[in-house]
Amino acid sequence: MKYYSLNQNAPKVSFERAVIQGLAPDKGLYFPESITALPAHFFENIENLSNEEIAFSAIQQFVGDEIPEAELKKIINETLCFEFPTVKVEDSIYSLELYHGPTMAFKDVGARFMSRCLAYFNKGKTEQKNTVLVATSGDTGGAVASGFLGVNGVDVVILYPSGKVSDIQERQLTTLGQNIKALEVDGVFDDCQDMVKKAFLDESLDFKNLTSANSINIARWLPQMFYFFFAYKQLKSLGKPLVVSCPSGNFGNICAGIMAKKLGLPIEHFVAATNVNDTVPQFLVTGKYEPKPSKATISNAMDVGNPSNFVRIQELYNNDLNAFQKDFTSFSYDDELTTETLKSIYVKTGYIAEPHGVVGYLGLKKEMQNHPNAIGVFLETAHPIKFLDVVEPILKIELPIPVQIETVLNKEKVSVKIKTYDQLKSFLHSS
Fold first, then answer.
1. CA spacing 20 to 30 A to 321: which of 164, 270, 338, 424?
2. What's the pLDDT tens digit per position in 393-410?
3. Catalytic residue chosen out of the listed positions 12, 27, 73, 107
4. Does 175 fall in a domain?
């Protein structure tokens, strides 16, 4: 499989080069040269397959022969070391819980898969070292820190916006040590992401062999297809169409879901539910894509004003807005409604959601009015404990601390504060 830049001004590369480079030299995101749908019998028999077998079938064509089959299966087995349950919340509405992994966020899947691919590519290359440079608006940092901790030949540098991630999220990316370094940026997520993109294009940093573990990296993004297949496997027996709503920040998750549909997965409709950072919902109204500075909300991991992966979604539909809108809608919700709905879900059903999942729920409920005979699924992308400072006061409950979180609570935070790209560059040169 070859990958091309969506900016169309860079050479095509292998899977390995796309993973290691992260971003193409022309600033474009990499995209697979072809997408071949899986055979009908795969979906007819999906309930009899293990998650590992499903994941291998979904990802194998995108890796090709660059990782041997046995090694790829090993990587998948190590990636999928936890469950992905669908939980009935109310009639015809299910939560797909993606937070049962090591850092209790959906990004554990992509981070674990990518780290193991990179470790495979570095095997035997004693002099080769890569620096994973990543921006986070919340959960990416912790997942990447955990996924890459102790991986030989890889240093990790994580940029996060000061004061705009939850305390637990911050601890997960600042307390591990070893090959993990955290930079606390005086700014918002978009500032962090802009610094990362600028560093990739800075020739003076070529010696660091920079790559990204944000969803701009294909090895972080593509494995996110897996859990859409897992949801279908669990709900197939209900015999109804599926509508899936993704709380959306950088749009990697929903883009992976659309990829799964292009592989043949029978999902009737997707909803990209956003907080007040409504660049994409506004695009669907006006037809103009106008990025804007991000605004801070209680669903902080979605505070993105210029979602990187939306260009991939446009590519999947050949930039045909009409075709796109048949499969896809997008709605925006503010903190006030998110808070009210978080409370009402708990009062009516006993289900404990968190702000990001609630935004997904709101988008799903709206779109389900157009699909009365469907089953609706909203993604719960992180455990409520990661937002206890929001969830506990609203629901007036005390959340039990899971083991995965307890291990970081008493560790010392270590971070370096920066304001400018030059400070990032100086840090990279000296580290």
1. 338
2. 999 999 998 888 888 888
3. 107
4. no
